[in-house]
Amino acid sequence: MNISGAIVKVKPGSDTAVLNALKGVEGCEIHLNQSSRIIVTLEAADVSGEIALVKTIEQIRDVVAVEMVYAYSEDELEQERDKLDLADDTPQWLNNESMDAREIKYGGDLKKKI
């Protein structure tokens, strides 16, 4: 589940028409309308669904821009954590509790050191 906050910027004087159009967009909840800016919450199953919502809103007449200001992706975060837990590419010395940190040599690029 992805939940995002966005600002929908509209042409001056077109707030009412855009608000009515937004009410018909499934997954979009309106929170505030002020000075040609409409604050909405977008809810979708994943990032692709979220992008589709943004593109749908961008196509509404008199919408100037849709700016994402917050995004939360619980399911995808857990999937990425699971991938990291299952990955076996962590160098052994990173998990060595007895390793003295002063013995670690850093060359400015961890990709070349690992």
TrEMBL record:
- Give the UniProt record's GO annotations in the biological process aspect: negative regulation of protein transport
Please state the protein's primary subcellular location.
cytoplasm
Signal peptide segment: none
GO molecular function annotation = signal sequence binding
Q: Which residues cross the membrane?
A: none
Under InterPro entries, the record lists: Chaperone_NapD_NO3_reduct
- Which HAMAP family does the UniProt entry name for this protein? NapD
* Entry protein name: Chaperone NapD
Task: Please name the source species.
Answer: Saccharicrinis carchari
Q: Per UniProt, what is the name of the gene that codes for the protein in this document?
A: napD
